[in-house]
Amino acid sequence: MDINIEQIQEHLEEFCCSADEKVLNKMKELCFAYRCSAEDIVDQWIAFSTSKNCTHQLSLTLLDQMEKEELMKPKIPNRGNLLTLYVLLYTILQLLILLVIILKLIRMT
């Protein structure tokens, strides 16, 4: 994923936020390290700063805190995604059973 600091700055400006070049470069590093887009990292920042009741003023210290508290957390699969996976696996199993039955019928004739 090719992210540049201009993209990050554009997304920050949507929330009336700004950052100096060091902070923007740190956010770019976080995008690379955690495989997220410029929009994703800004959304993470807005959610984090809002939950901490801090201003939307970015700093390296707060970004480090966000990385430790949010980005480093193991991702827990969404229940909706798990349900979709289970339904898909169940459907595949049904199709395999049907295929076995069809093959047995073909052999009998």
From TrEMBL:
Q: Which residues cross the membrane?
A: 82-106
Q: What InterPro entries does the record tag this protein with?
A: DNA_pol_alpha_B_N_sf, Pol_alpha_B_N
Q: Where is the DNA polymerase alpha subunit B N-terminal domain?
A: 6-73
Keyword Membrane tagged: yes
**Known Pfam families for this protein?**
Pol_alpha_B_N (PF08418)
Alphabetical UniProt keywords: Membrane, Transmembrane, Transmembrane helix
Domain of life according to the entry: Eukaryota
Name of the protein: DNA polymerase alpha subunit B N-terminal domain-containing protein
Origin organism is Caerostris extrusa (Bark spider)
UniProt gene name = AVEN_120284_1
